[in-house]
């Protein structure tokens, strides 16, 4: 099936007389006729629902749609994008291990890695999203367990050279984990370029309407965890499940099964069925919205590029953009609806511009149906030092402008009147 059809119908196939729409199963628990049956579920001898901290049918139906959209073998929802990235890495790394990450990543992920996960004893080395294979290799250590990056980074909009990162990862017997939030599976087919695990903040384009927080993880099924002894959590007995070995018991489902029955059981960052329902409604129009987001972003970028008060524009869909070629390679149909730019006059001019906008709202959000904008240096990234800002590719004058799906003419007219107020 084409992606458009998967967006609308997914993998949910109601039987005769069942609800046409994925139903909200608002139940913490599930009834069984005998203790033996329930015991088998706890031992993972049979699959089935027993407690919604681990799994819920509504969430699983939506996870299955996202898994199909990415073309993976197994997927799961989490309560947020932060939880998705934490689980994706923590599922295969523990105290004493090391991760190589692109430096061009979301500020929240940067803090998660650089501060919180360091406290758990996991070490990180950051490299440029355009680093050469040699430069990435130089960051790899014997205890490195994964490489991490974002297909299009939020907010710096750097495009990851996916194949280079994947080749270094695989040469070292470790997986490439990529956060595909901004490109979405509509615009970037990450598994085709060697990505092993993909994560999402479904809060952004996937849900698309700024009404629910959520995350997702999908496994391509392509990485062989048994090729070396780097992943004992997957290839040796789990004491918390009577010695089950995930790769032996679940094959290609090992990674997602471990993240579900071990991390979700112990940490509990489960998506709620109500939120998953809303996410699914958003997914039904993802293919249409992404197309319009990209058309609008391109029109806005073309307008800004010619404006005398704008010092620079970053939108890889512009032929003049330094990332145009790499964007064409990995995202031939477009990148995303977010453009960033600098206004002459720096921080002060950026503030005046933002305060003068009428249609575009100042919000701590991005990638939804309504046009919005943000000045990261004074908001989302304010915990970072100037040095860290530079590492994430965020300059002090950067305005992140997220084009919605309104009429491009109206978005541009709003920018025009706001720029007139900047002297
Ligand atoms: C927003 C975002 C996250 C964090 O997701 P939440 O749903 O806000 O927890 C992670 N990665 C990227 C690229 C994001 O844009």
Could you walk me through the main structural features you see in this protein, from its secondary elements to its overall organization?
The chain has 17 helices and twelve strands. The radius of gyration is 22 Å and the shape is globular. The longest helix is centred in the C-terminal third of the chain and has 20 residues, at 286-305. The mean pLDDT is 95. The protein has 423 residues and is α/β, with parallel strands linked by helices. The strands form two sheets. The chain has a seven-stranded mixed sheet, with helices on both faces. Strands 8-9-12-11-10 form a five-stranded mixed sheet. Bound molecules: pyridoxal-5'-phosphate. Residues 80-82, 85, 106, 108-109, 150, 154, 179, 181-182, 201, 203-204, 213, 215 line the site of pyridoxal-5'-phosphate.
Instruction: Please report the total strand number as a whole number.
Output: 12
Backbone shape: globular
Order of strands, main sheet, comes to 1-7-6-5-4-2-3
Distance between the termini: 53 Å
The molecules bound to the chains, other than polymers, are: pyridoxal-5'-phosphate
Unreliable residue runs: none
Largest sheet: 7 strands, mixed
What's the helical proportion of residues?
25-40%
Radius of gyration, in angstroms, nearest whole number: 22 Å
